[in-house]
Amino acid sequence: MLIIYPTVGINIYMLISEITQPNLIEGIFDPNIFKAVFMAGPPGAGKSTVRTQLFGGTGMRVVDPDTIQKMFQKSLPEQEKSYNPYATKAEKLRRSLVKSGLGLVIDGTNPNVSKVENMKKELESLGYDTAMVLVNAPLDVIMQRIAARQAETGREVSADYAQGVHARIQQNIPNYSNLFGDTFWLINNIDRTSITRPRGQINRWLSSPPQNPIAQQWIKQELSQRQR
Predict the structure, then answer these.
(1) Which of 23, 81, 94, 204 is the most exposed place for a label (fewest CB within 10 A)?
(2) With left for phi above 0 and alpha for psi between -120 and 50, is residue 200 left, alpha or beta?
(3) What is the pTM assigned to this prediction?
(4) Domain segments of the chain: what residues?
(5) pLDDT tens per residue, range 77-87
């Protein structure tokens, strides 16, 4: 797993270059090649914890707007701070990584179905098989977790924002289920047993060969060139 440590004042473009250049060589030998997983869910649902449990050690590259935000949050003027001001830089990182079909986890709240659908289509046009893991929890549970996290780390998420995203996620669960079909997994993150069943299904999907014809053709061509 790719881990980005919080650093104040780091040049984001240097960071992207350092991350992507070594990995572009891996390409065809990536164990999760042409697999992209969207993580969705309200703040406080435990997406980061579930992500680590599901994808830790798999070699998937994590594109995490929250992590990129943490690099800069302390150095931003108070009036410029927001919950996720660096999503566009995470998007630049994602675009750099997809050039060689590297396995991706696209991590965010993702309450906007249209945006996810468009990104899904774009990835599939590059050869990716796509899936979604939606991490959910009752509103009272996520509000308790947000309050506890704020007390521990100082990271603040407004109650209105959290409640609004939670409501939108609940409304969008059927839409996401229809959009991703058999590769949609809903995890109600109440306790540690909640990911036991989906973990096995997700691992089988990750380890299966790409089904997208574009990826299959790319792999065939790459193998042919390397055998010459």
Answers:
(1) 204
(2) alpha
(3) 0.75
(4) 21-218
(5) 444 444 455 55
